[in-house]
Amino acid sequence: MIPVVDLKSMTLEELSGYFQELGQPGFRAKQVFRWLHRGIESFDEMSDLPRALREALKERCLLTVPRVERRQVSQVDGTIKYLWRLLDGNCIETVLMRYKHGNTVCVSSQVGCNMGCVFCASTLGGKVRDLSPAEILDQVIFTQKDSGAEISNIVLMGIGEPLDNFDHVLRFLTLVNHPDGLNIGMRHISLSTCGLRKKIDKLALLGLQLTLSVSLHAPDDETRSRLMPVNRAVGVGPLMETCRRYFETTGRRISYEYAMIDGVNDSDAQADRLAELLRGQPGHVNLIPLNDVAESPLKPSRRVRQFQQRLEGHGVTATVRRKLGSDIDASCGQLRRRHMDGGTSS
Ligand code: SAH
Question: Probe ligand 1: pick from 120, 191, 296, max atoms within 8 Å of CB?
Fold first, then answer.
């Protein structure tokens, strides 16, 4: 029989219910919750559980343990990129970045992605499946365990569209935020989306204190639809309306991501238009130097500083994202993709 009870995807309350059904005392749930969030690799490691219970759990329950398929360590800045193999054989990526303000982990939310952005390596083979809450959480737990670096910040900016896996991502947030687990505060978490409007509205109603990043990448429909097929259904105007509502509801400033692409979205006129879009709304623009993806003809912009200055001239705050791990497979999705092809990494 294949164990189907995914204990690590359960909230503490659900675990309590589960152990109650098994006729166990009330404190079991917390014991098990703590072990799971500490990254045990076998039920035998739960040393304060009766042996019979450990055996019962082994028979009934799933214990997700990702295996390190590849680990690339940057010699330049200590960034580590993990390629994990999941229990069903699929691979996903996680990146550990070391900043002065703490260690940040960039996690994947799906195996592949269906959004089809033309500059992104993660979407080339489409979506294979959603990750479970435990599989998203495991990336934080096991990155911390493997690297020995204490994680203080999380960005949901790896492979996948987090809002296309809404329920599992929300459950992950609840789990990772829990005081008996990793206890990472919502203000230390960023969620990045290509702009699924209905889901942004749904998220707003929850009033979470996380930072929402919206991948904008172009201020006009023509360019944005060319880069991001989701825009054909969304449209820049309605998306910005949704963002405005999000701010009004949550009081949280949105961060707009803008990957700078040579000759596509980096003109002064586009900077002016972007500033116009953001007028009257406290937002922040994060300019990302495009990571070269071998399969794509798009090239990094040479006008990043000019574009930034132009925005600032309009009173828009814009920062240029520092590139980390430039000596290892750069943007997310590339390592998994090379691995799938059976190719060797550069
Ligand atoms: N699906 C989500 C989160 C994953 S991508 C989203 O779209 O936001 C995280 C960020 O990396 C997004 O802003 C995405 O557009 C950007 N990105 C993807 N490929 C890139 C590349 N080759 N160069 C620069 N940024 C890239």
Answer: 120
